[in-house]
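sry for the spam today, last one i promise. struct tokens for design, 164 residues
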């Protein structure tokens, strides 16, 4: 019940900033768990059969951070980043732009958590943010995202750091 209320507050937060939120079934062929439309109109969370409410919340916070950055940048995306996001196979320099934008936008995670009065352990937020940024850094360095096995190993490491 508490998590459902948090999800609803996050949806209203997005709507207050002019974005609609949609939940759709996850498609493993596309690979994304969430997306934010670069025109600022829509956030989509792709839900797997076993997605937890916390996973949905953290995905929403991640995408809302992009939207908040977009609003704070006068509703503009840098043309260089927009070009990179349209590419299927960006080069290392282009992937670096993506990684930098993820790092820059992630500074809003805590603000969104507080603004929407989330009640879950904030260490879950820190752990997910660190995991997300690590995934983007690996992608920047190698051009591929880490496999599920490698992600699970990283998550074990992060749990030792954040779970008390």
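last one done:
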């Amino acid at each position: 019940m508490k998590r459902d209320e948090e999800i609803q507050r996050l949806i209203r937060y997005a709507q207050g900033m002019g974005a609609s939120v949609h939940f759709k079934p996850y498609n493993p062929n596309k690979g994304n768990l969430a997306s934010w439309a670069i025109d600022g109109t829509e956030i989509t969370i792709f839900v797997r059969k076993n997605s937890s409410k916390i996973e949905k919340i953290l995905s929403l916070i991640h995408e809302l951070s992009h939207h908040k950055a977009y609003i704070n940048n006068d509703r503009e995306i840098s043309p260089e980043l927009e070009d990179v996001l349209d590419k299927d196979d960006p080069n290392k320099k282009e992937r670096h732009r993506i990684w930098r934008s993820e790092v820059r936008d992630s500074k809003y995670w805590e603000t969104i958590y507080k603004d929407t009065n989330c009640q879950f352990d904030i260490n879950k937020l820190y752990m997910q943010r660190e995991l997300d940024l690590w995934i983007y850094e690996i992608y920047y360095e190698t051009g591929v995202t880490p496999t599920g096995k490698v992600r699970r190993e990283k998550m074990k490491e992060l749990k030792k750091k954040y779970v008390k």
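The radius of gyration is 15 Å. ok im logging off now
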